[in-house]
Write a structure and sequence with these properties.
The protein has 57 residues and is an all-alpha fold. Helices cover 30% and strands 0% of the residues. The longest helix is centred in the middle third of the chain and has 13 residues. The chain is flat, with a radius of gyration of 13 Å. The protein starts with 21 loop residues before the first helix and ends in a 14-residue tail after the last helix. The C terminus is likely disordered.
Length: 57
């Protein structure tokens, strides 16, 4: 069974990637939210690692 593409997310980050940049943090939150891997509070900028579920942390 093939998965349907639900959304295309543009990756507009400079190369090489700066892992501590605000832009990458925003993109990570957006991806985690899209894949439902965060609680809504963490997705809105609150919480920390404890807000991640299913992220392998």
């Amino acid at each position: 069974m093939a998965a349907d593409i639900q959304r295309v997310i543009a990756i507009d980050l400079p190369y090489p990637r700066e892992r501590t940049s605000d832009a990458l943090a925003r993109l990570r939150r957006e991806l985690f939210t899209e894949f439902r891997l965060v609680h809504q509070e963490a997705a809105n900028g609150g919480g920390g690692v404890e807000g991640l579920s299913g992220a392998g942390i």
